[in-house]
Amino acid sequence: MNNPRLEYLRRKTHHLPLEPGVYIMKNKAGQIIYIGKAKILKNRVSSYFRSVEKHLPKVYRMVEQVHDFDYIVTDSEFEALVLECSLIKLHSPKYNILLKDDKGYYYIRVSTEDYPRITESKQKLEDGAEYIGPYTSIFVVKQTVDEVNKAFALPVCTRKFPEDFGKGRPCLNFHIKQCMGVCRGKISKEEYGQILGEAIQFIKGGTDGLLHALEERMALAAENLDFERAARYRDRISAIRRISEQQKVIFNGVQDQDFVAVVQSVDNVCAAVLKFRRGRLVDKEDFLLGETIGLEAARKEFLTGYYGPGREIPKIISLDESFEDAGLVAQFLTKQAGRNVELSVPMRGERKKIMEMAKNNAAQKLTYTTGRTGKEVNALDELARLLGLEKPPKYIEAYDISNIGSSTIVAGMITFENGRPYKAGYKKFNILGLNAPDDYQCMAHVLARRLKRWEEQKTCSEHDSFYRLPDLILLDGGKGHVNAVRPVLESFGLSIPVFGMVKDDKHRTRAIAQNGGEIAIKANRSVFTLISSIQDEVHRFSIQFSRAKHQKTGFELEIRKVPGIGEARARELFRYFKTVKAMKKASEEVLAACPGMTKKTAAALYDFLHSGENLAPGGED
Q1: Does the structure show a pLDDT above 60 at 202?
Q2: Which residue from 101, 129, 355, 619 has the fewest beta carbons nearer than 10 Å?
């Protein structure tokens, strides 16, 4: 820690009161860089300046810059929360979560072409087009434009009409009945204008009166034997009814409420808000919060910052996870709204499904900053929550022991980075010198060798094999394996989280083991899928290495039957050719070129390799 004031700050905390209040961290220039509230000021503030090496990266950087701090004592923890929110809005400290309310206005635009299009627009221009709005939600605008274009089969392609009539075949939308096929040139400008008018009426007034008028036109067209026109009216009525029904029954049992999910990636946090009114999703917002000083603090600061003056606060706010100050925040929001506001965590049913949707939306937003899929981001976030990790593990190492008797004992190490296999980090270990195939002893032996290599290479560049430590270690086995390797980690002064991957009697992933028991994972699909893939991959890698090693050992014994080839020369041959396959492809001259070989021995070996007798199957090492 490069903070020369650290000892002074520690001494200053000794004089803090054991009362609730707000603390204010300042840098050398006197600028406020962080504001927090505490139930007990002395305990909370002193925690920043103890064991600083164990802090999260953002907390560590903040503490590095703290030159001094002030504090304000309050009568209650709730008063401290209110004061904290007020001071954060006033000073906008660097290390607090600052929400940018850049919500503008959005419009639905109807262009002025011969065959006008309906699109969304972020601003209202003086271009002669008709603008419907304004709306405060781009989500609602996009959803409405998509629904109306599908319901009335309006074109969404880039073709220009009537210039492009008959130029090329109709697109897929026409064949799946989501476009009327204006490009064929069979829809008159007048008929298109009538359909467009109905679409605009649908946007402005919903289905009231529209369906009745369309049904009358369909009946009239049928009476006049214009069955093609009647069929188009029928399809339009069906599409409008289908969309209307979807809007009504998507979440019929859900009261008016907001669903707030906070998801963390390796170096960012995103909060997503889904707003439901009268059973329908009416808006979605998401905010990238950057690095935080912890997910609990992120939830508290987001909720108190987001539901500020002028923002609608529903009676129920559903959260993906509770936090220590949830009761205080509910009290704060109740005071803001002037009526009771409830914070709850859905555990089952429709609300639980919606919360999963909110979490997926937050994860998808994070994909733009991580280059990973939403499923990968969500799986790592869920894994961190399940295992009690401070943040999602970026770099995971998994180990498995494989043996064929006591003569061939090996281990495989695989690595996952950001939720994906990182094959450049895969390693193989030969285990020698152990009297019996003891999995616990072997696992401890392998971890000790891996960490010893880290000690040798930790000052090297990232191109070296073991230069970095994992954020999480997973072992193919139960709590016995976990207990076997913990002393190894402690001997190196490390506190890397270690868990086992437990299989059922059908060799399928069942749970995660820790030193005190097991954590069930089958109920959490994303974590279950990730752990299963890691366990399957490490088992595949280690068993493949074990089989290749066994084949190689057996073949080494076989070629020692060749006159002139002993243990040392057999070992040199495998060092030179790497695999049995490469050795079998070699000519006599190439075999003779191997260090220590003679032409006579090479000729004998060549005959042996191609005789087909007593030859073990070849394979990659």
Answers
A1: yes
A2: 101
